[in-house]
C-alpha cells in the first residue's frame, strides 16, 4: 500500500471491523485516493500480530486483493491481518494502520474448533473384555475440548458380499424370483446389523480436557460386543471433536490381542506333528554286524557231509 497516498474515507475516528476465526482476520475499508496519481494497491502477506491490547502498537492491515484507485476515487478494499492461532473468542478493541494512518478497530474473533488425533486408526480384537489403546490428542483451535466416553455402531466390512451370497441362494435353475432375492438380501443385512451391535469407548482417566495449543495422551478402553462374526472384520468411527478415530475390530484375533484366555473351541491351531520313526536297520546288515545268520563256510561243509551207508553182502 502506498504510504500517505490513500486514506480512510470519512472521519478519522471511523471504526474498522474485522471478522473471522484465529489466524487471518478479514475486513473491508473504504479508501480514498488523496493523491493526483493513480494508486495501485498490491496484495501482501501480513505478519502475526501478537499484542492485541488497545494500548499496544497499531496492527498493520494488509490489502487482501489487488485494486486500482484513480485520483479522488473511493473503493471498498478488503484488508486482512493475522492474530495468534489460539486467541480466545471475543471482541478486541485495537488500533490498525490503514494506508499509513492509525484508526480504531474491533476484532470479532469467532470460535474455532480444530482437533487432530494420532494415530488415526487402531486395531482391536474381539471379546467382551476392555482393550486398551493410547492416542495423542492435539488441540489446534482456540477453545478447550473435553472427551469422555462414546458409543458408536459397528459396520460389517463384508456385509455386501455376504448379503449377495444369501440372495444368490434364492435363485433356482428354472427361474428367478426377484422379490425373493431382495428379501434374502434384506434378511441377511438385518442379521448382520443385529450381530454387529455397538462399540463402547471410554477414557481411562474419566474425562480428558485439552486446552488450545496443547497435546495430551489419552488412554482409551474399547469394549466390543460378544456377538460378532469371527470370519469378518468390523469398522467404527469414533468422533473426537473435528477428528475421526477409525477403529478396526478383528474378531478372529479373539483371545490373543485382548489378552484373554484362548477358547479351546475357537482354537484353529494344527496339532503337533508326531516324531518320525527311526529308520529300520536291514536284516542282512544286522547279521553282518552281529555275526549271526548264515553259518561259516567250514560249518556248512561239515553239516553237508553224510557218512556212507554200509552195502549189503
Order of helices and strands: EEEEEEEEEEEEEEEEHHEEEEEHH
Structural class based on helices, strands and sheet pairing = mainly beta
Work out the number of β strands. 21
Q: C-alpha Rg, in Å?
A: 43 Å
Share in helix: 10-25%
The main sheet comes to: 8 strands, mixed
Structural write-up:
The protein is mainly beta and 313 residues long. It has helices at residues 159-168, 178-196, 283-290, 297-304, and strands at residues 6-8, 16-20, 24-33, 39-41, 59-60, 62-63, 67-69, 74-82, 90-98, 101-109, 115-118, 121-125, 131-139, 145-147, 149-153, 155-156, 198-203, 208-210, 215-223, 234-240, 243-250. A hairpin with a 2-residue loop joins β20 (234-240) and β21. Residues 255-271 have low confidence and may be disordered.
Essential attributes:
five-stranded antiparallel β-sheet, Immunoglobulin-like, elongated, 313 residues, eight-stranded mixed β-sheet, 4 helices, mainly beta, 14% helix
Secondary structure topology:
Blueprint: E1 6-8, E2 16-20, E3 24-33, E4 39-41, E5 59-60, E6 62-63, E7 67-69, E8 74-82, E9 90-98, E10 101-109, E11 115-118, E12 121-125, E13 131-139, E14 145-147, E15 149-153, E16 155-156, H1 159-168, H2 178-196, E17 198-203, E18 208-210, E19 215-223, E20 234-240, E21 243-250, H3 283-290, H4 297-304
Parallel strand pairs: 2-10, 5-9, 12-21
Antiparallel strand pairs: 1-3, 2-3, 3-8, 4-7, 6-8, 9-10, 11-13, 13-19, 14-18, 15-17, 16-20, 17-19, 20-21
Amino acid at each position: 500500500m502506498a504510504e500517505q497516498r490513500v486514506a480512510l474515507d470519512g472521519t478519522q475516528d471511523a471504526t474498522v471491523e474485522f471478522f473471522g476465526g484465529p489466524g487471518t482476520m478479514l475486513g473491508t475499508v473504504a479508501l480514498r485516493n488523496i493523491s493526483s496519481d493513480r494508486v495501485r494497491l498490491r496484495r501482501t502477506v501480513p505478519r502475526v500480530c501478537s499484542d492485541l491490547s488497545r494500548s499496544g502498537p497499531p496492527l498493520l492491515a494488509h490489502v487482501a486483493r489487488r485494486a486500482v484507485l484513480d485520483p479522488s476515487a473511493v473503493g471498498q478494499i478488503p484488508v486482512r491481518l493475522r492474530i495468534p492461532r489460539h486467541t480466545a473468542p471475543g471482541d478486541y478493541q485495537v488500533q490498525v494502520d490503514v494506508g499509513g494512518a492509525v484508526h480504531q478497530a474491533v476484532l470479532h474473533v469467532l470460535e474455532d474448533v480444530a482437533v487432530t488425533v494420532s494415530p488415526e486408526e487402531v486395531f482391536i480384537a474381539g471379546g467382551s473384555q476392555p482393550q486398551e489403546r493410547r492416542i495423542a490428542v492435539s488441540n489446534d483451535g482456540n477453545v478447550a475440548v473435553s472427551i469422555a466416553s462414546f458409543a458408536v455402531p459397528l459396520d460389517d466390512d463384508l456385509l455386501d458380499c455376504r448379503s449377495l451370497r444369501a440372495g444368490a441362494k434364492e435363485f433356482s435353475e428354472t427361474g428367478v424370483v426377484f422379490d425373493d432375492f431382495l428379501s434374502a438380501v434384506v434378511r441377511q443385512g438385518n442379521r448382520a446389523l443385529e450381530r454387529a451391535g455397538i462399540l463402547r469407548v471410554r477414557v481411562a482417566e474419566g474425562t480428558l480436557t485439552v486446552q488450545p495449543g496443547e497435546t495430551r495422551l489419552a488412554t482409551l478402553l474399547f469394549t466390543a460386543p460378544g456377538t460378532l462374526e469371527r470370519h469378518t472384520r468390523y469398522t467404527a468411527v469414533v468422533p473426537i471433536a473435528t477428528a475421526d478415530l477409525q477403529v478396526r475390530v478383528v474378531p478372529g484375533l479373539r483371545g490373543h490381542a485382548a489378552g484373554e484366555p484362548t477358547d479351546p473351541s475357537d482354537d484353529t491351531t494344527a496339532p503337533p506333528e508326531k516324531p518320525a520313526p527311526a529308520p529300520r536297520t536291514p536284516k542282512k546288515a544286522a547279521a553282518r554286524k552281529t555275526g549271526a545268520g548264515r553259518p561259516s563256510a567250514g560249518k556248512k561243509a561239515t553239516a553237508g557231509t553224510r557218512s556212507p551207508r554200509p552195502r549189503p553182502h
